[in-house]
Write a structure and sequence with these properties.
There is one protein chain. This protein is an alpha/beta fold and 260 residues long. The chain has a single domain, classed as Rossmann fold. A seven-stranded mixed sheet has the order 3-2-1-4-5-7-6, sandwiched between helices. Helix 1 crosses helix 2, helix 1 crosses helix 3 and helix 2 crosses helix 5. It starts with a helix and ends with a strand. The structure holds S-adenosylmethionine. S-adenosylmethionine binds next to loops.
Length: 260
């Protein structure tokens, strides 16, 4: 809801970085996100830049299969111009998917690709559910892991990366977000952590060297700094990612290609 609200907010800007006409309707269907205003004020622009960064990564990689892990209220299946023949899988918990399908039906949303929802628990055997839904591990894939790893215990994150890698044919791409320890420990994040704790969505992990971490699983990765992203899109650097304000604290945005 929080991220969809940031995307809905972007929709009213003249020079917006993406088009998400469904976001506002999904947020409305979900109920008020006002409890999350504090987080939104702190990180709203980060969500906008990150959305555009991942949009660009997914479209540039132009793979026949796209897998969005923990998709939440992501509407990329509807709002991006996919190459003909693209199949896009969305994984999330059954209750989230049920809610989203109802809301999308009410909004008369039409996907711009072959969209397949995969209700599953990412702590359990999601690879089997994905393959049963039609995913083919022999074809290259573009994976997206946005807003996910920090919420997982370290061993669960490793397990997910292990399986993502095992299911990735050569040439597959992966785009992910993570944070470092200094970011988790930022004083500015204290109130956010308290709010996430109340939602039973505590942050549980971090990584210091995402490029090395991904290399260990056969991926050649590159990290993009928000300072460069903001300059590319003529936006102010979001305060929470501005080195002048947060020092070495980082929200990592990484894109990788499967080399092994
Ligand atoms: N990727 C989306 C985005 O950036 O807009 C949503 C990220 S949201 C912070 C985390 C998502 O993870 C939620 O949609 C939630 O339902 C999903 N989730 C949490 N625990 C999960 C689990 N065990 N299995 C599958 N999905 C889960």
């Amino acid at each position: 809801m929080l991220i969809a609200a940031a995307r809905a907010n972007e929709q009213s800007r003249l020079r917006r970085l993406f088009n998400d006409p469904l976001a506002a309707g999904l947020v409305e269907a979900a109920g008020s996100a006002s409890d999350l205003n504090g987080v939104k004020n702190l990180a709203g622009d980060h969500f906008v830049l990150r959305t555009r960064y991942f949009d660009d990564q997914l479209l540039e990689s132009a793979q026949p299969q796209v897998v969005i892990m923990a998709a939440g209220l992501d509407t990329r299946a509807f709002r991006l111009q996919w190459p003909p023949g693209t199949t896009l899988f969305e994984l999330d918990l059954p209750e989230l998917i049920e809610f989203k399908e109802d809301a999308l039906h009410d909004l008369r949303a039409e996907p711009a690709c072959d969209r397949v929802t995969v209700p599953c628990d990412l702590r359990e055997d999601w690879p089997t559910a994905l393959i049963r839904a039609g995913f083919d591990p022999k074809r290259p894939t573009a994976w997206l892991l946005e807003g996910l790893f920090m919420f997982l215990p370290p061993d669960a994150g490793e397990r997910i990366l292990y399986w993502v890698s095992a299911l990735s044919a050569k040439g597959s791409t992966l785009a992910l977000e993570h944070v470092n320890r200094a970011f988790r420990d930022l004083p500015q994040m204290k109130a956010v952590h308290r709010r996430f704790d109340r939602l039973d969505a505590r942050w549980q992990s971090d990584v210091e060297d995402p490029v090395g971490w991904l290399a260990g699983y056969g991926w050649q990765a590159e990290v993009t700094h928000q300072v460069d992203l903001a300059a590319r899109h003529d936006r102010a650097v979001p305060a929470i990612t501005d080195p002048l304000k947060v020092g070495d604290a980082r929200i990592w945005l990484a894109a990788a290609v499967r080399t092994g």
